[in-house]
Amino acid sequence: MSQVAEAAVQTKEPLFSPKNRRLLTDPLDDNNPITIQVLGICSALAVTAQVKPSLVMALCVVFVCSVSNLLISLLRKGIPSRIRMIVQLVVIATMVTLVDQVLKAFVYDLSKELSVYIGLIITNCIIMGRLEAFAMGNKPWPAFLDGIGNGLGYGAILILVAVFREVFGAGTFLGYQVIPQFIYDLGYVNNGVMVTPAAAMFLIGIFIWIQRARKPQLVDIS
Q1: How many CB atoms sit inside 10 A of residue 165's CB?
Q2: Using CA atoms, how far apart are residues 196 and 193, in angstroms rounded to an integer?
């Protein structure tokens, strides 16, 4: 029996094995939920006019996605197949409600600025997709890492878009002036297109093009 236990210890997968590390890193690039899976586009258009709300939204999605993945993975063997999506929605809604209440308690002004978009995390296809495609069929730790990875991949694009929109649309970064006044004195004006959701769509399109140009294997040739 001792030999069996020793063999089990030896074959136990490390917490951050190469396979588990890929769950964190792949969504940042080769399997990004926005630029590769083309999910979560609506919020990327709506909340990226400034960096601060985009950062908060990204953190909220990381929390909701990772904790929801963890809970569904823990419950997966006891969830009847016919009601699994209802259970998933209840878990996501609970996490989103918790996030919404925390924001209202500690950063009320930012909560008002994000408005209904926090609540709409419930309908974010990225989260539902990971619960259905990964958490329902994997152990809790990999599911938790997958949730963090996809949340970070989503958040990275969100923040990158917001940086371009805020800097070129308002001349600020996190509310601080970054374009010197003498540039405006020379005739420079902020780009009005950057404050519209259309700018986010253009930027995401450019990011997708750059990513596929850099890695042609990502191009769907079917």
Answers
A1: 24
A2: 5
Q: Which residue has the tokens 């069996």?
A: 4
Q: Would residue 191 be called left, alpha or beta, if left means φ above 0 and alpha means ψ between -120 and 50 degrees?
A: beta
First to last CA, the chain: 53
**Side-chain half-sphere of 137: how many Cα atoms within 13 Å?**
5
Q: Look at residue 3 and tell me whether its pLDDT is greater than 70.
A: no
pTM of this prediction?
0.86
* Nearest residue to 203 via CA among 175, 152, 166: 166
Q: Compute the distance between CA of residue 201 and CA of residue 41 in angstroms, rounded to an integer.
A: 8
Which H helix or E strand runs over 176?
Answer: strand 176-177
Sign of torsion over alpha carbons 44, 211, 61, 49? negative
Give the separation between CA 131 and CA 125, rounded to whole angstroms.
Answer: 10
Q: What is the mean pLDDT of residues 152-166?
A: 93
pLDDT-based confidence at 220, cuts 50/70/90?
A: low
Nearest residue to 47 via CA among 188, 137, 157: 157
53 CB neighbour count, 10 Å cutoff: 21
Question: How far is 165 from 143, CA to CA, in rounded Å?
Answer: 33
